[in-house]
Model the fold of this input.
Amino acid sequence: MHIPVRIVLVTPTHPGNIGAAARAMKTMGLSDLALVAPKHFPSEEATARASGAGDVLDNAEVTATLPEAIGDCGYVVGASARLRGSKWPIVDPRTCAESIWRHLPDNRVALVMRPEHSGLSNDDLGRCRELVHIPTNPEFGSLNLAMAVQVLCYELRMCQLSSSVASGEDRGVPFASAAELEGFHEHLERVLAAAGFLHPVHQKQLRLKLRRLFQRARPDHNEINILRGIVAALDPARYTDGRGSA
Amino acid sequence: MHIPVRIVLVTPTHPGNIGAAARAMKTMGLSDLALVAPKHFPSEEATARASGAGDVLDNAEVTATLPEAIGDCGYVVGASARLRGSKWPIVDPRTCAESIWRHLPDNRVALVMRPEHSGLSNDDLGRCRELVHIPTNPEFGSLNLAMAVQVLCYELRMCQLSSSVASGEDRGVPFASAAELEGFHEHLERVLAAAGFLHPVHQKQLRLKLRRLFQRARPDHNEINILRGIVAALDPARYTDGRGSA
Done:
Protein backbone atom coordinates (compact mmCIF):
# COMPACT_ATOMS: atom_id res chain seq x y z
CA MET A 1 0.00 0.00 0.00
CA HIS A 2 3.05 2.22 0.40
CA ILE A 3 3.66 4.81 -2.35
CA PRO A 4 7.45 5.14 -2.87
CA VAL A 5 7.58 8.79 -3.87
CA ARG A 6 9.89 11.17 -2.02
CA ILE A 7 8.47 14.55 -1.05
CA VAL A 8 11.26 17.13 -0.94
CA LEU A 9 10.54 20.41 0.87
CA VAL A 10 13.16 23.01 0.01
CA THR A 11 13.98 25.59 2.71
CA PRO A 12 10.67 25.22 4.56
CA THR A 13 10.33 28.06 7.05
CA HIS A 14 7.31 27.17 9.22
CA PRO A 15 7.70 24.02 11.35
CA GLY A 16 3.90 23.72 11.43
CA ASN A 17 3.88 23.27 7.67
CA ILE A 18 6.47 20.51 7.89
CA GLY A 19 4.34 18.64 10.42
CA ALA A 20 1.13 19.16 8.46
CA ALA A 21 2.89 17.98 5.28
CA ALA A 22 4.04 14.80 7.04
CA ARG A 23 0.49 14.13 8.19
CA ALA A 24 -0.88 14.81 4.70
CA MET A 25 1.65 12.40 3.19
CA LYS A 26 0.84 9.61 5.63
CA THR A 27 -2.92 9.87 5.13
CA MET A 28 -2.28 9.14 1.44
CA GLY A 29 0.23 6.34 1.99
CA LEU A 30 3.54 8.19 1.50
CA SER A 31 6.35 8.24 4.05
CA ASP A 32 9.58 9.35 2.33
CA LEU A 33 10.20 12.98 3.32
CA ALA A 34 13.36 15.00 2.64
CA LEU A 35 13.97 18.49 4.02
CA VAL A 36 16.50 20.75 2.37
CA ALA A 37 17.97 23.31 4.76
CA PRO A 38 14.88 23.63 6.98
CA LYS A 39 14.90 26.77 9.11
CA HIS A 40 13.81 24.88 12.25
CA PHE A 41 13.97 21.10 12.46
CA PRO A 42 13.29 19.05 14.43
CA SER A 43 10.77 21.17 16.29
CA GLU A 44 7.99 20.62 18.76
CA GLU A 45 5.53 22.46 16.56
CA ALA A 46 6.23 20.18 13.61
CA THR A 47 5.76 17.11 15.78
CA ALA A 48 2.51 18.47 17.22
CA ARG A 49 1.05 19.26 13.79
CA ALA A 50 2.14 15.87 12.42
CA SER A 51 -0.37 14.30 14.78
CA GLY A 52 0.07 10.54 14.32
CA ALA A 53 2.64 10.97 11.55
CA GLY A 54 5.63 11.58 13.82
CA ASP A 55 7.35 8.55 12.24
CA VAL A 56 7.49 10.38 8.90
CA LEU A 57 9.32 13.24 10.62
CA ASP A 58 11.60 10.86 12.54
CA ASN A 59 12.67 9.21 9.31
CA ALA A 60 12.94 12.43 7.30
CA GLU A 61 16.25 13.00 5.58
CA VAL A 62 17.72 16.46 6.17
CA THR A 63 20.19 17.73 3.58
CA ALA A 64 22.00 21.00 2.94
CA THR A 65 21.25 21.14 -0.78
CA LEU A 66 18.64 19.97 -3.25
CA PRO A 67 21.07 17.84 -5.29
CA GLU A 68 21.80 15.79 -2.16
CA ALA A 69 18.10 15.22 -1.55
CA ILE A 70 17.38 13.97 -5.07
CA GLY A 71 20.76 12.44 -5.96
CA ASP A 72 19.47 8.88 -6.33
CA CYS A 73 16.24 9.85 -8.10
CA GLY A 74 15.74 9.18 -11.80
CA TYR A 75 12.54 11.13 -12.13
CA VAL A 76 12.17 14.54 -10.49
CA VAL A 77 9.06 16.71 -10.68
CA GLY A 78 8.90 20.27 -9.40
CA ALA A 79 5.75 21.84 -7.99
CA SER A 80 5.25 25.37 -9.22
CA ALA A 81 2.78 27.83 -7.78
CA ARG A 82 3.23 30.10 -10.77
CA LEU A 83 2.65 29.53 -14.44
CA ARG A 84 5.72 31.46 -15.45
CA GLY A 85 6.62 31.93 -19.07
CA SER A 86 9.08 29.06 -18.85
CA LYS A 87 9.34 26.46 -21.57
CA TRP A 88 9.36 23.69 -19.00
CA PRO A 89 6.49 21.29 -19.53
CA ILE A 90 3.73 22.07 -17.00
CA VAL A 91 1.06 19.52 -16.14
CA ASP A 92 -1.86 19.38 -13.73
CA PRO A 93 -1.69 17.16 -10.62
CA ARG A 94 -3.65 14.32 -12.22
CA THR A 95 -1.45 14.12 -15.28
CA CYS A 96 1.60 14.45 -13.05
CA ALA A 97 0.52 11.57 -10.82
CA GLU A 98 -0.13 9.34 -13.81
CA SER A 99 3.25 10.22 -15.25
CA ILE A 100 4.98 9.52 -11.93
CA TRP A 101 3.12 6.24 -11.66
CA ARG A 102 4.36 5.09 -15.05
CA HIS A 103 7.96 5.82 -14.08
CA LEU A 104 7.85 4.34 -10.59
CA PRO A 105 8.77 0.76 -11.43
CA ASP A 106 12.15 1.75 -12.85
CA ASN A 107 13.01 4.99 -11.07
CA ARG A 108 13.22 6.59 -7.69
CA VAL A 109 10.85 9.54 -7.93
CA ALA A 110 10.98 12.89 -6.12
CA LEU A 111 8.45 15.68 -5.96
CA VAL A 112 10.17 18.97 -5.11
CA MET A 113 8.35 21.85 -3.45
CA ARG A 114 9.21 25.23 -2.02
CA PRO A 115 7.09 27.43 0.24
CA GLU A 116 4.76 29.45 -1.97
CA HIS A 117 6.34 32.82 -1.30
CA SER A 118 9.66 31.74 -2.73
CA GLY A 119 8.87 29.36 -5.58
CA LEU A 120 11.30 27.19 -7.50
CA SER A 121 14.53 28.84 -8.56
CA ASN A 122 16.05 28.44 -12.01
CA ASP A 123 18.59 26.07 -10.48
CA ASP A 124 15.73 23.97 -9.08
CA LEU A 125 14.00 24.04 -12.46
CA GLY A 126 17.10 22.73 -14.17
CA ARG A 127 16.85 19.57 -12.08
CA CYS A 128 13.21 18.80 -12.87
CA ARG A 129 11.82 16.68 -15.70
CA GLU A 130 8.57 18.56 -15.59
CA LEU A 131 6.56 20.93 -13.44
CA VAL A 132 3.23 20.31 -11.79
CA HIS A 133 0.88 23.22 -11.19
CA ILE A 134 -2.23 22.99 -9.02
CA PRO A 135 -4.86 24.97 -10.92
CA THR A 136 -5.81 27.48 -8.25
CA ASN A 137 -8.30 30.30 -8.48
CA PRO A 138 -6.60 32.96 -10.64
CA GLU A 139 -7.78 35.59 -8.17
CA PHE A 140 -6.48 33.77 -5.07
CA GLY A 141 -3.69 31.29 -5.57
CA SER A 142 -2.42 31.33 -1.99
CA LEU A 143 -2.21 27.58 -1.45
CA ASN A 144 -0.55 26.56 1.80
CA LEU A 145 2.50 24.27 1.35
CA ALA A 146 0.94 21.40 3.31
CA MET A 147 -2.32 21.77 1.36
CA ALA A 148 -0.39 21.46 -1.89
CA VAL A 149 1.30 18.32 -0.50
CA GLN A 150 -2.15 16.96 0.37
CA VAL A 151 -3.54 17.52 -3.12
CA LEU A 152 -0.51 16.05 -4.92
CA CYS A 153 -0.36 13.02 -2.63
CA TYR A 154 -4.11 12.55 -3.01
CA GLU A 155 -3.69 12.31 -6.79
CA LEU A 156 -0.92 9.74 -6.32
CA ARG A 157 -3.22 7.74 -4.08
CA MET A 158 -6.05 7.93 -6.63
CA CYS A 159 -3.58 6.60 -9.19
CA GLN A 160 -2.61 3.77 -6.91
CA LEU A 161 -6.27 2.82 -6.44
CA SER A 162 -7.10 3.13 -10.11
CA SER A 163 -6.50 0.22 -12.40
CA SER A 164 -6.83 2.49 -15.42
CA VAL A 165 -3.29 3.83 -15.19
CA ALA A 166 -0.99 1.36 -16.84
CA SER A 167 2.18 0.79 -14.90
CA GLY A 168 5.58 0.29 -16.51
CA GLU A 169 8.15 2.75 -17.78
CA ASP A 170 7.99 3.83 -21.41
CA ARG A 171 11.38 2.44 -22.36
CA GLY A 172 11.87 -0.28 -19.76
CA VAL A 173 15.23 1.25 -18.77
CA PRO A 174 15.67 3.45 -15.69
CA PHE A 175 16.60 7.05 -16.30
CA ALA A 176 19.96 8.30 -15.15
CA SER A 177 19.81 9.48 -11.56
CA ALA A 178 19.71 13.19 -10.79
CA ALA A 179 23.28 12.91 -9.49
CA GLU A 180 24.49 11.32 -12.74
CA LEU A 181 22.73 13.99 -14.76
CA GLU A 182 24.16 16.71 -12.53
CA GLY A 183 27.65 15.24 -12.94
CA PHE A 184 27.23 15.31 -16.70
CA HIS A 185 26.03 18.92 -16.71
CA GLU A 186 28.87 20.09 -14.50
CA HIS A 187 31.31 18.32 -16.74
CA LEU A 188 29.73 19.76 -19.87
CA GLU A 189 29.64 23.29 -18.46
CA ARG A 190 33.26 23.09 -17.36
CA VAL A 191 34.31 22.00 -20.81
CA LEU A 192 32.12 24.56 -22.58
CA ALA A 193 33.56 27.29 -20.36
CA ALA A 194 37.08 26.11 -21.12
CA ALA A 195 36.20 26.24 -24.81
CA GLY A 196 34.97 29.81 -24.42
CA PHE A 197 31.46 28.79 -25.49
CA LEU A 198 29.71 29.32 -22.15
CA HIS A 199 30.40 31.98 -19.58
CA PRO A 200 29.49 30.32 -16.27
CA VAL A 201 28.22 33.51 -14.64
CA HIS A 202 26.85 35.64 -17.47
CA GLN A 203 25.06 32.96 -19.46
CA LYS A 204 22.62 31.46 -17.00
CA GLN A 205 19.83 31.28 -19.58
CA LEU A 206 22.00 29.23 -21.89
CA ARG A 207 22.85 26.84 -19.03
CA LEU A 208 19.15 26.50 -18.31
CA LYS A 209 18.35 25.78 -21.95
CA LEU A 210 20.91 23.00 -22.02
CA ARG A 211 19.46 21.51 -18.88
CA ARG A 212 15.95 21.68 -20.28
CA LEU A 213 17.08 19.94 -23.41
CA PHE A 214 18.58 17.00 -21.51
CA GLN A 215 15.62 16.82 -19.15
CA ARG A 216 13.48 16.31 -22.25
CA ALA A 217 15.86 13.72 -23.61
CA ARG A 218 15.77 11.76 -20.35
CA PRO A 219 19.05 9.94 -20.79
CA ASP A 220 19.56 6.61 -19.07
CA HIS A 221 22.72 5.44 -17.30
CA ASN A 222 24.43 4.17 -20.44
CA GLU A 223 23.57 7.26 -22.40
CA ILE A 224 25.05 9.45 -19.67
CA ASN A 225 28.25 7.46 -19.94
CA ILE A 226 28.25 8.01 -23.69
CA LEU A 227 27.61 11.73 -23.26
CA ARG A 228 30.40 12.06 -20.71
CA GLY A 229 32.70 10.23 -23.08
CA ILE A 230 31.85 12.75 -25.77
CA VAL A 231 32.42 15.70 -23.48
CA ALA A 232 35.74 14.29 -22.30
CA ALA A 233 36.77 13.68 -25.89
CA LEU A 234 35.97 17.27 -26.83
CA ASP A 235 37.60 18.86 -23.78
CA PRO A 236 40.06 21.54 -25.07
CA ALA A 237 42.38 20.54 -22.23
CA ARG A 238 43.19 17.41 -24.24
CA TYR A 239 44.72 19.51 -26.97
CA THR A 240 46.18 22.33 -24.94
CA ASP A 241 48.06 20.03 -22.61
CA GLY A 242 46.00 21.09 -19.58
CA ARG A 243 46.74 24.77 -20.09
CA GLY A 244 43.12 25.62 -21.08
CA SER A 245 41.85 27.14 -24.28
CA ALA A 246 43.12 30.27 -25.94
CA MET B 1 -15.02 31.25 -12.30
CA HIS B 2 -16.97 30.98 -9.04
CA ILE B 3 -18.10 27.48 -8.02
CA PRO B 4 -21.53 27.78 -6.35
CA VAL B 5 -21.25 24.88 -3.89
CA ARG B 6 -21.87 25.49 -0.19
CA ILE B 7 -19.43 23.94 2.25
CA VAL B 8 -21.19 23.18 5.54
CA LEU B 9 -19.02 22.53 8.59
CA VAL B 10 -21.06 20.96 11.38
CA THR B 11 -19.96 21.75 14.96
CA PRO B 12 -16.38 22.65 14.06
CA THR B 13 -14.32 22.85 17.24
CA HIS B 14 -10.98 24.36 16.21
CA PRO B 15 -11.12 27.94 14.88
CA GLY B 16 -7.86 27.30 13.04
CA ASN B 17 -9.59 24.62 10.98
CA ILE B 18 -12.39 27.00 10.05
CA GLY B 19 -9.90 29.57 8.80
CA ALA B 20 -7.83 26.98 6.93
CA ALA B 21 -11.01 25.59 5.36
CA ALA B 22 -12.00 29.08 4.16
CA ARG B 23 -8.58 29.56 2.61
CA ALA B 24 -8.74 26.11 0.97
CA MET B 25 -12.15 26.94 -0.48
CA LYS B 26 -11.06 30.26 -1.92
CA THR B 27 -7.93 28.82 -3.57
CA MET B 28 -10.26 26.53 -5.51
CA GLY B 29 -12.87 29.18 -6.35
CA LEU B 30 -15.52 28.47 -3.70
CA SER B 31 -16.84 31.09 -1.29
CA ASP B 32 -20.13 29.86 0.21
CA LEU B 33 -19.40 28.68 3.76
CA ALA B 34 -21.95 27.71 6.40
CA LEU B 35 -21.07 26.90 10.01
CA VAL B 36 -23.46 24.89 12.13
CA ALA B 37 -23.07 25.60 15.85
CA PRO B 38 -19.36 26.43 15.75
CA LYS B 39 -17.70 26.28 19.17
CA HIS B 40 -15.85 29.58 18.64
CA PHE B 41 -16.78 31.97 15.85
CA PRO B 42 -15.81 34.56 14.85
CA SER B 43 -12.31 34.16 16.23
CA GLU B 44 -8.95 35.77 15.70
CA GLU B 45 -7.34 32.40 15.08
CA ALA B 46 -9.76 31.61 12.26
CA THR B 47 -9.12 34.97 10.65
CA ALA B 48 -5.36 34.53 10.93
CA ARG B 49 -5.41 31.06 9.37
CA ALA B 50 -7.74 32.22 6.60
CA SER B 51 -4.89 34.40 5.34
CA GLY B 52 -6.37 36.30 2.39
CA ALA B 53 -9.72 34.49 2.60
CA GLY B 54 -11.20 36.61 5.39
CA ASP B 55 -14.08 37.54 3.08
CA VAL B 56 -15.22 33.92 3.05
CA LEU B 57 -15.39 34.01 6.86
CA ASP B 58 -17.09 37.41 6.87
CA ASN B 59 -19.82 36.11 4.58
CA ALA B 60 -20.18 32.74 6.32
CA GLU B 61 -23.68 31.83 7.43
CA VAL B 62 -23.88 30.62 11.03
CA THR B 63 -26.84 28.44 11.94
CA ALA B 64 -27.92 26.48 14.98
CA THR B 65 -28.86 23.32 13.11
CA LEU B 66 -27.95 21.46 9.94
CA PRO B 67 -31.45 21.69 8.43
CA GLU B 68 -31.20 25.49 8.56
CA ALA B 69 -27.87 25.42 6.76
CA ILE B 70 -29.08 23.23 3.90
CA GLY B 71 -32.74 24.21 3.77
CA ASP B 72 -32.63 25.67 0.26
CA CYS B 73 -30.37 22.97 -1.17
CA GLY B 74 -31.68 20.38 -3.58
CA TYR B 75 -28.58 18.23 -3.61
CA VAL B 76 -26.76 17.46 -0.38
CA VAL B 77 -23.64 15.32 -0.13
CA GLY B 78 -22.10 14.21 3.16
CA ALA B 79 -18.39 13.67 3.64
CA SER B 80 -17.65 10.57 5.63
CA ALA B 81 -14.29 9.70 7.11
CA ARG B 82 -15.43 6.15 7.74
CA LEU B 83 -16.64 3.47 5.42
CA ARG B 84 -19.29 2.29 7.82
CA GLY B 85 -21.55 -0.61 7.00
CA SER B 86 -24.25 1.82 5.87
CA LYS B 87 -26.26 1.23 2.77
CA TRP B 88 -25.83 4.85 1.75
CA PRO B 89 -24.14 5.17 -1.62
CA ILE B 90 -20.47 6.03 -1.10
CA VAL B 91 -18.39 7.57 -3.87
CA ASP B 92 -14.84 8.85 -4.17
CA PRO B 93 -14.15 12.61 -4.44
CA ARG B 94 -13.80 12.55 -8.22
CA THR B 95 -17.11 10.79 -8.79
CA CYS B 96 -18.71 13.06 -6.20
CA ALA B 97 -17.49 16.21 -7.92
CA GLU B 98 -18.74 15.01 -11.27
CA SER B 99 -22.09 14.18 -9.77
CA ILE B 100 -22.33 17.59 -8.05
CA TRP B 101 -21.36 19.25 -11.31
CA ARG B 102 -24.16 17.54 -13.18
CA HIS B 103 -26.71 18.73 -10.61
CA LEU B 104 -25.46 22.30 -10.26
CA PRO B 105 -27.48 23.95 -13.01
CA ASP B 106 -30.79 23.05 -11.39
CA ASN B 107 -30.00 22.77 -7.71
CA ARG B 108 -28.34 24.50 -4.85
CA VAL B 109 -25.69 22.04 -3.70
CA ALA B 110 -24.22 21.55 -0.23
CA LEU B 111 -21.28 19.47 0.93
CA VAL B 112 -21.62 18.61 4.62
CA MET B 113 -18.64 17.80 6.82
CA ARG B 114 -17.98 17.18 10.47
CA PRO B 115 -14.62 17.15 12.26
CA GLU B 116 -13.09 13.72 11.81
CA HIS B 117 -13.35 12.67 15.44
CA SER B 118 -17.12 12.94 15.43
CA GLY B 119 -18.23 11.93 11.93
CA LEU B 120 -21.70 12.26 10.45
CA SER B 121 -24.56 11.22 12.69
CA ASN B 122 -27.47 9.11 11.50
CA ASP B 123 -29.58 12.28 11.45
CA ASP B 124 -26.99 13.92 9.17
CA LEU B 125 -26.95 10.84 6.96
CA GLY B 126 -30.69 10.99 6.54
CA ARG B 127 -30.31 14.38 4.91
CA CYS B 128 -27.70 13.35 2.34
CA ARG B 129 -28.22 12.07 -1.18
CA GLU B 130 -24.91 10.30 -1.10
CA LEU B 131 -21.67 10.14 0.85
CA VAL B 132 -18.21 11.00 -0.34
CA HIS B 133 -15.22 9.24 1.17
CA ILE B 134 -11.63 10.34 0.62
CA PRO B 135 -9.71 7.10 0.16
CA THR B 136 -7.12 7.51 2.91
CA ASN B 137 -4.39 5.10 3.92
CA PRO B 138 -6.18 2.26 5.77
CA GLU B 139 -3.47 2.40 8.42
CA PHE B 140 -3.68 6.18 8.95
CA GLY B 141 -6.90 7.88 8.02
CA SER B 142 -6.43 10.95 10.20
CA LEU B 143 -7.27 13.59 7.60
CA ASN B 144 -7.53 17.11 8.98
CA LEU B 145 -10.89 18.80 8.32
CA ALA B 146 -9.38 21.64 6.28
CA MET B 147 -7.30 19.14 4.29
CA ALA B 148 -10.47 17.23 3.42
CA VAL B 149 -12.08 20.52 2.33
CA GLN B 150 -9.02 21.18 0.17
CA VAL B 151 -9.20 17.80 -1.59
CA LEU B 152 -12.95 17.97 -2.22
CA CYS B 153 -12.81 21.57 -3.49
CA TYR B 154 -9.83 20.65 -5.66
CA GLU B 155 -11.90 17.95 -7.35
CA LEU B 156 -14.69 20.45 -7.96
CA ARG B 157 -12.19 22.81 -9.50
CA MET B 158 -10.80 20.06 -11.73
CA CYS B 159 -14.38 19.41 -12.83
CA GLN B 160 -14.88 23.05 -13.62
CA LEU B 161 -11.72 23.12 -15.72
CA SER B 162 -12.54 19.89 -17.50
CA SER B 163 -14.74 19.96 -20.54
CA SER B 164 -15.23 16.22 -20.30
CA VAL B 165 -17.86 16.41 -17.59
CA ALA B 166 -21.19 17.09 -19.19
CA SER B 167 -23.24 19.64 -17.38
CA GLY B 168 -26.99 19.47 -17.02
CA GLU B 169 -29.19 17.62 -14.55
CA ASP B 170 -30.37 14.13 -15.41
CA ARG B 171 -34.07 14.94 -15.45
CA GLY B 172 -34.09 18.67 -16.18
CA VAL B 173 -36.21 19.34 -13.08
CA PRO B 174 -34.73 20.58 -9.80
CA PHE B 175 -34.94 18.23 -6.85
CA ALA B 176 -37.06 19.17 -3.88
CA SER B 177 -35.07 21.28 -1.42
CA ALA B 178 -33.73 19.73 1.76
CA ALA B 179 -36.35 21.72 3.71
CA GLU B 180 -39.18 20.35 1.58
CA LEU B 181 -37.87 16.83 1.96
CA GLU B 182 -37.47 17.32 5.71
CA GLY B 183 -41.03 18.64 5.94
CA PHE B 184 -42.30 15.58 4.15
CA HIS B 185 -40.37 13.20 6.41
CA GLU B 186 -41.56 14.90 9.57
CA HIS B 187 -45.10 14.72 8.30
CA LEU B 188 -44.71 11.06 7.32
CA GLU B 189 -43.14 10.12 10.65
CA ARG B 190 -45.86 11.91 12.61
CA VAL B 191 -48.54 10.07 10.71
CA LEU B 192 -46.79 6.72 10.94
CA ALA B 193 -46.36 7.21 14.68
CA ALA B 194 -50.03 8.09 15.00
CA ALA B 195 -50.83 4.91 13.07
CA GLY B 196 -48.70 2.88 15.47
CA PHE B 197 -46.38 1.85 12.66
CA LEU B 198 -43.31 3.76 13.76
CA HIS B 199 -42.12 4.41 17.29
CA PRO B 200 -40.32 7.77 17.05
CA VAL B 201 -37.72 6.90 19.70
CA HIS B 202 -37.23 3.16 19.47
CA GLN B 203 -37.23 2.71 15.72
CA LYS B 204 -34.44 4.97 14.54
CA GLN B 205 -33.20 2.39 12.04
CA LEU B 206 -36.59 2.25 10.38
CA ARG B 207 -36.67 6.07 10.14
CA LEU B 208 -33.25 5.99 8.55
CA LYS B 209 -34.29 3.36 6.04
CA LEU B 210 -37.23 5.51 4.95
CA ARG B 211 -34.99 8.50 4.54
CA ARG B 212 -32.50 6.51 2.51
CA LEU B 213 -35.28 5.31 0.25
CA PHE B 214 -36.47 8.84 -0.52
CA GLN B 215 -32.93 10.11 -0.93
CA ARG B 216 -32.53 7.48 -3.63
CA ALA B 217 -35.82 8.46 -5.22
CA ARG B 218 -34.80 12.14 -5.36
CA PRO B 219 -38.30 13.60 -5.50
CA ASP B 220 -38.80 16.98 -7.12
CA HIS B 221 -41.06 19.74 -5.82
CA ASN B 222 -44.23 18.42 -7.45
CA GLU B 223 -43.57 14.89 -6.29
CA ILE B 224 -43.12 16.10 -2.72
CA ASN B 225 -46.53 17.76 -2.94
CA ILE B 226 -48.02 14.51 -4.18
CA LEU B 227 -46.33 12.54 -1.38
CA ARG B 228 -47.55 14.98 1.24
CA GLY B 229 -51.03 14.71 -0.20
CA ILE B 230 -50.85 10.95 0.19
CA VAL B 231 -49.61 11.17 3.76
CA ALA B 232 -52.32 13.67 4.66
CA ALA B 233 -54.92 11.44 3.05
CA LEU B 234 -53.75 8.44 5.08
CA ASP B 235 -53.43 10.28 8.38
CA PRO B 236 -55.43 8.28 11.00
CA ALA B 237 -56.48 11.60 12.52
CA ARG B 238 -58.83 12.02 9.58
CA TYR B 239 -60.81 8.99 10.71
CA THR B 240 -60.45 9.31 14.46
CA ASP B 241 -61.62 12.90 14.57
CA GLY B 242 -58.27 14.21 15.72
CA ARG B 243 -58.12 11.87 18.71
CA GLY B 244 -55.22 9.79 17.26
CA SER B 245 -55.08 6.08 16.57
CA ALA B 246 -56.00 3.29 18.96
